[in-house]
Design a protein that fits this description.
With 128 residues, the chain is mainly α. The chain is built from five helices and no strands.
Amino acid sequence: MGRDLSMKKFNWKGGGETMETNLNKQPQVDDVDSNKVMAILAYIIFFIPLIAARDSKFAAYHANQGLVLFLTAVAVNVIESIIPIIGWFFILTFGNLAVLILAILGIINAAKGLMKPLPLIGGISIIK
């Protein structure tokens, strides 16, 4: 008597998303192929895909991730400017390094054609 696991949801990454919901979010192959460059640009200038690829769910997903990453970078830099000495040396250095690493991870995910959320901030959705 084996267990039927086909319809069960698994929390395989620990981020609140299940494998089932993550599989449902994967984009169409033609959408990925035609908008991969737009998705990569979203991590550099987040609003470009919103203008150039309005109908692409893939580009919009990465534009959202790019916007959240941009707002995170702004928050890190505002906080570091408010807190003297500790903010200047530790928050500025490690905060901006973390933002850079998240941007690189996002670019890699976009280049691979994945709609994978970024660690820590990937669950935030601003652009619908």
